[in-house]
Amino acid sequence: MATDELSVDSPMGEILDALPGARRALFSRYHLGGCQSCGFPPEETLASLAKRAGDHDPEAMLSHLLAAHEHDKGMLVSPAEAKAMLESESPPLLVDTRTREEHEAVSLPDSTFMTEEVQQRLFAGDPGQSILLYDHSGRHVLDHCSWFQGHGLKNTRGIDGGIDAWSREVDPEVRRYRIEID
Predict the structure, then answer these.
(1) What contacts 130, CB < 8 A, 6 or more positions away?
(2) Kindly report the CA angle at 159 between 116 and 132, in degrees rounded to 5?
(3) Mean pLDDT by 10 residues, the chain (182 residues)
(4) Domain 76-169 belongs to what topology?
(5) Which terminus of the chain has fewer Cβ atoms in its 10 Å neighbourhood, N or C?
(6) Which domain of life is it from (predicted)?
(7) What do you get for the CA distance between the two ends of the chain, in Å?
């Protein structure tokens, strides 16, 4: 669903699909969706959630979600933009935020696997350093970018669509995979 089709009567599942950072935005402003006690089912509408969670203004909530989405888009670069950044004279540090197993199975060339040690070194280093993060499908990279930026690393961006989009759009030699969860 396109963002301009969202309304207060849209189910939360559709809102979360259209606005990947919506859960984070709802939690930071309204303390909704971050834990079991403040969660919501995917079929619940935004209007219903607003009423149930403290009689919030659902239009204001939707405006907040859309504004947060615009902010989030500024943290993402397309796979093609990422490729150009990595081929520039001053390439960013490329950091893989997936699991160790995923990184060892397939990763982007010259990427660094995110460990606690790498993270601490980055946070203690140059706050102006350019950092490019990637995950599997882009589903979690906004959270990681926000976290890095919140720790002072303002030049952190994420690859929109993750390594999967990179494989489809930039380098088909990078093997695609899917994660199966029981």
Answers:
(1) 85, 90, 91, 92, 93, 155
(2) 45
(3) 90 92 89 83 95 93 94 94 97 97 95 95 94 93 90 95 97 90 59
(4) Oxidized Rhodanese; domain 1 (3.40.250)
(5) C
(6) Bacteria
(7) 27
